[in-house]
Amino acid sequence: KVDVRLADPSPGQAGVINHFQVNGATGNGAFYIAYGTATGLTSVGLCAAADFGIDQAQMLGNGTASSDGVGIISIMVPSAASGVTAYFQALDVERCELSTVNSFQFP
């Protein structure tokens, strides 16, 4: 079994489109990415036994992984995010498995 992993946003800049890549998801399965500005707990809702490790987590986006378990979401990160430390976490819906929480500060 491969663990679900979430890479840092690329290019990791505020004010432009950033790509968030999930690896190790269920092939052809649904995934979600959540974000927030503090760690804590937020119920996943889809999975009774799982909580996001992010306080008041919001959905960044969702998608379907490729057959090899890779998924990418592309989102415009507002310029106002510059200087903000954000927390991100991926959810593999099929397995109700969460990635670790990643922190990232947009320059």
Q: Which band does the percent of strand residues land in?
A: over 45%
The overall average pLDDT, rounded, is 96
Class from helix and strand fractions: mainly beta
Identify low-pLDDT runs: none
Question: Would you write up a description of this structure?
Answer:
This protein has 107 residues and is mainly beta. The chain contains no helices and ten strands. Strand 4 and strand 5 form a beta hairpin. The mean pLDDT is 96.
Write the layout of secondary structure elements.
Elements: E1 5-6, E2 17-23, E3 30-36, E4 39-43, E5 51-54, E6 58-64, E7 71-76, E8 85-92, E9 97-98, E10 102-105
Antiparallel strand pairs: 1-2, 2-7, 3-6, 3-8, 4-5, 8-9, 8-10
Note the main attributes of this structure.
five-stranded antiparallel sheet, 107 residues, 10 strands, mainly beta, single chain
In brief:
The protein is an all-beta fold.
